[in-house]
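Posting here for the record, re: 5-O-phosphono-beta-D-ribofuranosylamine.
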Amino acid sequence: MRWAVLVGGRGSNLAALLAAGIDVRLVVSHRAGVGALDVARSAAVPARVLEPAGFADRAAYDRTLAEILASAGVDGVVLAGFLRILGPTVVDAYPGRLLNVHPSLLPAFPGLHAPRQALAAGVRVTGATVHFVDHGMDTGPIIAQAPVPVWPDDTEATLTARIQSVEHRLLPLVVRLVERGEVAWVDGRVHLSPAAAATLSWWWSKSEED
Ligand code: GRF
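Prediction output follows.
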């Protein structure tokens, strides 16, 4: 499958997808000057900056984004640090092929600054989630999750780094499962094939060794 990755931050998840050999054909950032654009450039992946400021409203932004994705001929889209809610023009164009990675165990701590929210709540375990994107904010059906401990001396920076190192393993793994048709979104529920369930349990046993 050919993928687009929508970004807006450092681009560490983009780098992880590229390192895993995922066929990324296009990167779109909602912000200029971010690290993710440098990651795209060093991998010679075409990159576009699409800042909201130039658009009359959210629908106009989404229409242009949908056109850019369609003309790149991508089959699926990964959101990795793209801090905008997408409307139906984009979401409905990629059913079961639009993924987001979020730095918490959803449905806990949706939205911005999830590691900061976890520290404020005093939880001892948080984690990473990869889910299908629906019309809400971080509400789509969950495909895979991995736990991350919160240590007493954690800062937002140390906790974020620990969560991201898990994201960098979990996200490419899920993208591969979607490519192989091992994960499907049917009638609002996520179905894992036996192979996908085995792959994810392999991941759990690996994470226990870490
Ligand atoms: C990741 O932590 C992801 O979960 C969140 O935004 C962050 C993006 O980081 N949605 P990066 O740009 O991939 O380094």
